[in-house]
Amino acid sequence: MREVKTTCPYCGVGCGIVLNIDDDDRIAWVDDDPTNQSSQGMLCVKGRFGTTYVNHPDRLTTPLIKEDGEFREASWDEALDLVAEKFIEYRGAFGSFASAKATNEDAFIQQKFVRLLMGTNNIDHCTRLCHAPSVEAMLDQIGSGATSNSYADYEAASCLLLVGSDASSNHPVAASRMRRAIDSAGAQLIVINPKRIDMCDRAAYFLQNKPGTDVSVFNGMARAVLDAGFEDRSFIDSRTEDFDGWKDEVLSSTVEQYAEAAGVGAEELRGAALLYARPPERRDRPTEIPGSCLIWGMGVTQHLHGTDNARSLLNLAFLCGQIGRPGCGVSPLRGQNNVQGCGDAGCIPDTLPGYQSYEAAIANFEEAWGAGLSKVQGMRATDMVERIPQGDVQAMFIVGENPMLSEPNLHHAEESLKALKFLVVMDLFMHETAEIADVVLPACSFAEKDGTFTNSERRVQRVRQAIPPVGDARPDWEVIADLGRRVAIKVDIDPGQFTYGSASEIFDEMARLVPFLRGLSYERIEDGGIQWPCPTSDHPGTTFLHEESFPRGLGKFVAVRQQDVADETPDDEYPLMLTTGRVLYHWHGGTITSRVQGLLNTVDTVPVTIHPDDAAASGVEDGDATAVFSRRGRMNGVAVVSDAVQPGTIFVPFVKLKGSAANFLTNNAYDEVSRIPEYKLCAVKVEKKRERRRMR
């Protein structure tokens, strides 16, 4: 038995794990890593028991080419020669999805392939579907889209404001660090969520707002702070701009009016606001200025006006001066294990790696890569799917993503993706999107390759190969490099640009081109991750951001007003509002966790949480098989009757089980700024599922 230290492949917390490998080169069990600075020896159920998918018999093991509607096995040379030929044919109408579950090195070389060889910036990843509104708002108002603080600040804070996140299910180890601050040191907790969650049991205030009313909640909190004179005038005057215009908007309604619009009590709204603005001293830190951490999840962002929601959070943090020092900050909890790193590496359509603008940095990349690059902003992921039928996108390279499960309104997404002229998928399993592809390439899991992940607190950590690749699978970076050399020769680009001997060579190239990574190397992070920015080789890394200034100079207040809560609202035919999220025992759509038998045994059917009043009106009892319908489709699940949800709403996690998933119901309406889909809200009806009668 041998041990290999690496990083968990699930959520953005970035827990350290130790893989115990048996004599047959299989993962026997997983231990925690007490030396990991992010997880400190803690693991959730997925991290500890959820890696058996690596050796699941469903793994793709050889390239596949579709002929006459059926897949046949192919060699790597045959498959990549075909892909190179077809991709060149569709240059100018090409798009690519990168994977936030892959490594930074995989991501960097994929965006390089798209930009340098395919001549387009049509590259995106799942940040478009989770925290794109947070990033858009933060880039505009702060100049950086990254979490400003560390997990250690949760434990140093006097107040934790947790918004739109069931952290115990989505980020269990981060939630454990929050609970430790509350239980051991007396930190105060505020929870704002339309659904009652486990953390509410520890909350000083729980505001169960109506779904889609976040701006009302946070403008109301800001109004309460202003009324009490609790704003941080020194911070506002020295560190921000556009305060007066924003203040005029906030003062246009009273706390009571905001509270009524949000469906919460005015006194509770006021009390939560003043606690966040002026938290009490911590009993274990009496000499420090008390701070508040603002922590949010996709309950804030996956809305028709998700960017406005994120802006209202940032405005409140500026108002109260709760950013730029230990024990406070703004913290969007990132979903996937490497969604932060995938963005850092450049897999977004509107900036180059390191979030550098085309105007400011393109010359550096052209010099390094030896060719000209397009300055035209690329399409976002959701727009690529929408524009396939118009012919703007005719070929796609989708790596480690399953849009036939992750896109909203799946029937519509299926129609669009099937209209592609050529589709290549590289992944671990034959999932819904792979089934409609022309070529499928077998990828390596996290346990079969070297690289790095970057977690929610900007910590870059090593991923280490523990077992040989399954079958003929190859690491993403190696496949893309091989493909890149084949394409480069035919488009008059130096194929040496895609000649790498190891993943570390790719990391070194990325670090040279991204200023905030420039001081990092595999050697430096061998014994533990380092948080960027790390601009020089002797820099220790940065635990919190914006101590003296913001990347854009002054923090910008942006006035926002409550808009329509959703694109569609309940009516007589569809009387309930669906809201979505996750369940502890599965990850996103379940492509991986549905192949972990222990997790599947725990939750094998999609739970549909419904309020007792609505259950009674629908003729549904706890444990009943149910059918949920929207204007776009239906899904089946099992009823969980609970007052955790409000009357008039139901909650369904995203996971697909037994052929049913929430995205058969969700609406392909989009936030205008970030183009994130409105996953969180749509109108539905619930019925008790009836057994089909057999025809005699």
Protein described:
- The protein is an alpha/beta fold.
- It has four domains: 2-55, ADC-like domains (N-terminal domain of TfIIb); 64-129 and 346-354 and 361-517, Rossmann fold (3-Layer(aba) Sandwich), CATH 3.40.50.740; 132-332, Dimethylsulfoxide Reductase, domain 2, CATH 3.40.228.10; 576-688, Barwin-like endoglucanases (Beta Barrel), CATH 2.40.40.
- The chain is 32% helix and 18% strand.
- The chain is built from 25 helices and 28 strands.
- The chain has a seven-stranded mixed beta sheet. A six-stranded mixed beta barrel has the order 21-25-22-24-23-28. A five-stranded parallel beta sheet has the order 10-9-8-12-13.
- Helix 3 links the parallel strand 6 and strand 7.
- The radius of gyration is 24 Å and the shape is globular.
- The N and C termini lie far apart (59 Å).
- 58% of the residues are buried.
- The model has no long low-confidence stretch (mean pLDDT 93).
